[in-house]
Amino acid sequence: MAVELSQEGVEALLKGVAIPPRPTLLIEVDQELKSRDPDMKRVAGLIGKDVGVSAAMLKTLNSPLFGLRSKIGHVSQAVLMLGARNVRNVVTGLVLRNAVGGNAASLERFWDSSVKVASINAYICSILPKVPREDAYTFGLFHDCGIPLLMQRFDDYRETLKLAAGENRPLTDIEEERHGTNHATVGYMIARSWGLSDVICQSILRHHDPGIITDSADSSDPVTRTLVAINFLAEHLNDTSLRLRADYQWERHGEIVLDYLGLTEHEYAEIREDVLALCT
């Protein structure tokens, strides 16, 4: 079931965390895509003006984890291949880092991990075509984007992260106890204010809630549930195979996640090997 929040509820949940405005590039791209007869060449031109976004788009799409059969050499080619909705999602994800003040050297590891999780999401979708890989990639980039903002808002937030690393509970539970809000809620508000689909917004809001997968009575959109399950697997692979750290949540819910995605233990092992080979 989709969660709707009132303005008063939003302000209470954010606890003074400032949501960054939607970047100008997204506004311009949106205006063109929402016109009666969108000019995809103009969309490519708008994206092409931003050298950083252009380069990141080509790097993303040409990554082995993204699973395209042939290389893309130009932004115009990428735009035509992706189509309007997917272009919007990918560009939205790529401008995220600058918008939330993510260029600090202390956040390099955080952003590197976000990109890897997003890419693993896309790779899983190239094997299990249950949802568009562009949606899964964008969701992967956004799912933890509230963390840098909480870091800016609360002086003791790094201590929260340290505490969470040693506990067998979701990070969101510990954030709520210490700060009265959590990064999933903040990420949801960014995604909503930037105009991402309700499916992606809801997936961000509930990505630390295993009940969306484990509870057969959960009434969430099936695509939302699938995105959360895919991201659950992607985070597990990133944590255990690439960052070499324990994943207590997977120990509790991993079997159910694999069952929900229709993956056998053998297929899971193959995906794990593939991800490790493609990321190292």
Total domains, how many? 1
Report the end-to-end length measured between terminal Cα atoms: 39 Å
Q: How do the helices and strands follow one another from N- to C-terminus?
A: HHHHHHHHHHHHHHHHHH
Structural class of the secondary structure composition? mainly alpha
CATH domain class name: Mainly Alpha
Strand content: under 5%
Q: Low-confidence runs (pLDDT<50, min 5 residues)? A: none
The number of helical runs is 18
Could you walk me through the main structural features you see in this protein, from its secondary elements to its overall organization?
There is one protein chain. The protein is mainly alpha-helical and 280 residues long. The chain has a single domain (10-279), classed as Orthogonal Bundle (Hypothetical protein af1432), CATH 1.10.3210.10. It is built from 18 helices and no strands. Helix 2 (24-33) packs antiparallel against helix 6 and helix 13 (183-193) packs antiparallel against helix 14. The longest helix has 21 residues, at 222-242. It is globular and about 50 Å long. The mean pLDDT is 89.
Give a quick precis of the structure.
68% of the residues lie in helices and 0% in strands.
